Each structure stands twice: as structure tokens, then as C-alpha cells.
């Protein structure tokens, strides 16, 4: 059952990420078109700025699912270091409950806002503003599934507990570069001039 849910979530998150990438491309393209019409042709487009903004909103909310699933949201690593290992599952459950609460609020109020603006149109376009606001509940719904999948994968032992530190670079010792390069008498000194 867990495997089936994780497989479903993987496909759902891939779909969300694909939509986010497409929306990013659309947003960048419309922004470029806006700059081109405004500064090159001196005839600014009336619709491209609104369309680019709407695409960027969809990009952000759809990419949230992949961000939650990968554990790339901001993590307070100090808490993981203080909490004993046996309490890590409890900490993960508490974090997931907080995330689910926020996402549920986004879904609830996102639906209300989408319904409230459904009779309004975007400036410069004859399209309902509901299409822009719909990104909030849709993206939060995708993210909610991703959050649950991450918790299930962690509790079933398929993934490690705690934040994903795979992309973090190890700490390197900082050293003074002047110590590795011997100074000769002929080299100019800092702040001074050559004799």
C-alpha cells in the first residue's frame, strides 16, 4: 500500500515539476516579449506582464511539491542535532503536522479567493483572475501529497530521517592565502608602492 502511494506521489510530483518548468519558460518568454515591445518597438504590450506574473505564480506553487518532497524547505538543523535519535520520528511527525496545517489553510483560503475573484478579469486580458488564484489551492494540494509521501518514506525506512544534506558542501578550513605564497622582497606590499 505504501509502495503504491509513493509511486502515485512520484508521478504527481513529476507532473507538478513539469508544469512548474513550463510555467517558468512561459514567464521568461512573456517577460522578454514585454521588454522587447516596450523598449525596442516603443509599443508596450498590454497583456504580457500580467500573463508573465500569472505564469510565475503557477511556477512557484507547483514547484513547492517537489521542494517539500525533497526536503529542501528551510530546515533548522540545530534541532536535529539536539533531539535524540529515538525522538527523530516524533520531530518529523510534528514538522509534517505543521506543514499540513499551513497547506490546509492555503487550500481553504485559496479556494475561497479563487471563487471570490472568478467574476473579475485580468487587466489587458479577457481571462478570469480565478486562473491565477487557482495556483494556490492546486499547488498546496500537490505539496500536501508530497509531504505525506516524504513522511511515509521516512517512517518506513526507505529514506533517512532529518533534512536532506546531500547538496550541502562540507566545511573547509579557511586559511590565509598569504601563508601559502612566500613573499619576496621584490613583490609590492599591500597598501604600499614598489621601492
From TrEMBL:
TM spans (from-to): 12-35, 55-75, 87-111, 131-153
Keywords: Cell inner membrane, Cell membrane, Membrane, Transmembrane, Transmembrane helix, Transport
Cell compartment(s), UniProt: Cell inner membrane
Ranges for domain Tripartite ATP-independent periplasmic transporters DctQ component: 31-155
Superkingdom of this protein's organism: Bacteria
One Pfam entry name: DctQ
Predominant localisation class: membrane
Signal peptide positions on this chain: none
Bilayer topology annotation: Multi-pass membrane protein
Keyword Membrane: yes
Region feature Disordered, mapped onto this chain: 164-195
Subunit-structure text: The complex comprises the extracytoplasmic solute receptor protein and the two transmembrane proteins.
Similarity-based family: Belongs to the TRAP transporter small permease family.
Role noted for this protein: Part of the tripartite ATP-independent periplasmic (TRAP) transport system.
Protein name: TRAP transporter small permease protein
UniProt organism field: Billgrantia zhangzhouensis
Amino acid at each position: 500500500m505504501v509502495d503504491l502511494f509513493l509511486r502515485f506521489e512520484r508521478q504527481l510530483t513529476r507532473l507538478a515539476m513539469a508544469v512548474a518548468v513550463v510555467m517558468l519558460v512561459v514567464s521568461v518568454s512573456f517577460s522578454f516579449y514585454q521588454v522587447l515591445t516596450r523598449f525596442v518597438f516603443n509599443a508596450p504590450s498590454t497583456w504580457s506582464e500580467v500573463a508573465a506574473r500569472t505564469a510565475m505564480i503557477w511556477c512557484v506553487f507547483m514547484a513547492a511539491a517537489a521542494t517539500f518532497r525533497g526536503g529542501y524547505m528551510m530546515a533548522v538543523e540545530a534541532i536535529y542535532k539536539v533531539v535524540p535519535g529515538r525522538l527523530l520520528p516524533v520531530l518529523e511527525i510534528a514538522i509534517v503536522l505543521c506543514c499540513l496545517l499551513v497547506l490546509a489553510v492555503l487550500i481553504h483560503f485559496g479556494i475561497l479567493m479563487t471563487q471570490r475573484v472568478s467574476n473579475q478579469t485580468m487587466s489587458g486580458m479577457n481571462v478570469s483572475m480565478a486562473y491565477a488564484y487557482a495556483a494556490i489551492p492546486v499547488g498546496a494540494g500537490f505539496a500536501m501529497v508530497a509531504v505525506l509521501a516524504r513522511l511515509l518514506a521516512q517512517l518506513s525506512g526507505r529514506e533517512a530521517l532529518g533534512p536532506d544534506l546531500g547538496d550541502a558542501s562540507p566545511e573547509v578550513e579557511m586559511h590565509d592565502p598569504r601563508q601559502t605564497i612566500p613573499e619576496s622582497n621584490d613583490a609590492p606590499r599591500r597598501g604600499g608602492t614598489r621601492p
